[in-house]
Write a structure and sequence with these properties.
The protein is α+β, with helices and mostly antiparallel strands and 142 residues long. It is 24% helix and 39% strand. It has helices at 32-47, 52-59, 131-140; strands at 11-16, 61-72, 81-91, 95-104, 107-120, 125-126.
Amino acid sequence: MGPTQPEAMHFSWPVRVYYEDTDAGGVVYYANYLKFFERARTEWLRSLGLNQDKLQEESGLIFVVRRALLDFVRPARLDDLLQITVEPKKLARVYVDLAQHARRGEELLARAEIRVACLGKSGLKPALVPPVLRGIATSARL
């Protein structure tokens, strides 16, 4: 899948809610949404041909969450099948801003604004985002 395809601009990943994801009230524990969003971002990058282990090994680059703003709208419950989306909103030289949503069908459960920074692994200093992400930004005019 190339970076100019529509899937690069709006990616969706299914997540089933397991017992371990819920709290004593039987709803998804709030911190687990961060895990769901992380999984979807990882799969989004993988769909673009970016394997994070390989990127780290070959280029010495890592991604870190720099900022996360979450809004919880409705609870998810055991066995719910959620769709977790990733949509790039802004690409700067060393970070990407993403909008993410957790939905059960059409119902919005949670949303997040995530800033992911690119760092050089050795010194943990800001580094240019990989070319494939710059290609997405160019084609989408981010």
